[in-house]
Amino acid sequence: MQLADLEYFYVGKEMNGRFKGSRIGKIYQVTKKLFKFQVSNEDGKFTILIQLPDYITFTKRDVPAPEQPSNFIMALRKRLTNGMIEGIEQPRFERIIIINIRAQGRPYKLVFELFSNGNILLCDPDKGDTIDVLYRKESWRDRELRKGEKYRLPPSKLSPFTAELKHISLNGKRTLMSGILSQISVAPKYLEEAFLRAGIDPKIVQEPHPEEKERLFYMIKGVCAEGNYYSYSKDGKIVDYAVAHLTKYEGQGYEKKEYDSVLEMIDAVYVPLLADAEEEKGRMVKREDERAHQAFAVNKMKERQLELGSEEHASRASAAHLYKNYQKIEQLIQLARSMRKQGKGEQEISKAISHIERDAYYKNGMIVLRIKV
To answer: Per CATH, which fold does 5-145 belong to?
Structure first.
């Protein structure tokens, strides 16, 4: 699930009220797509979370992050650390959040694009919003996102708050709903709700009567202006959320929960994504361990090759032994690692692993296998 433009309208308003005047702390990249920005103000310390391209919110929960920052994160830290947030906005009703920051005596625009694959850019307003730092280069039909280019917003549809009655039309489309969506930037679930409240079939294929058109027009504005925050769950799992009541879930066995703020709603909905992020970190660590295991095996095979003076013969024998005894070798590694964390010495570790593999011993942080060839 990705946040819709209407939801970002409320996100931008709430974030501006909550974080305007806050100081920027550390910036982290948790996974490939999850970032966190620490901010502080008189109400305490907070973490702003950005999951590209799904959402932006805040949390007080602890979100672990890698110790080694990427070059992108280092560039952001260098420019923004201890900067002050001067304002937060959602431009043109887009799925974009811009944080205006003053740091080291100069202004910056930190842009979060939360559509397509998502992106993060830092622009220099003193140089006409030239892109100074960006997460990824992108090329669109009508704009380029790369360092040194002037940042331009994507083309926009009409906001439901500025749309006019004339836009409630087929507009050359097959159905009234698709015609409205081609002109007005409103997520289908909110437009469907407006149709339900107006008592009009969203699949209608002809131009509505003037009275129907006017009724639907004001229902769209009413739904979008409601500003109440709900999640809808079934069997204990959140299946949807909204910034207005959704009639379609009534009487269908769904549990509706109301939240005090849009950011609280988003944080509750996306808790599972943080668990996914932790799983991804675990997989990354596991891959690093596997690469270390492979490097260890290769190094040991090379040592044996030199000792035996027969590279081909030794290589085949070592590879065959490793392949045949892969589970046992993995068991040796896990046992040695566990005992090392417990502070056990080399002799004690060697004795323990020899019960599993008689021709193995532990020395200088490595497991040594004696393979007969």
So the answer is: ibrinogen binding protein from staphylococcus aureus fold (2.30.310)
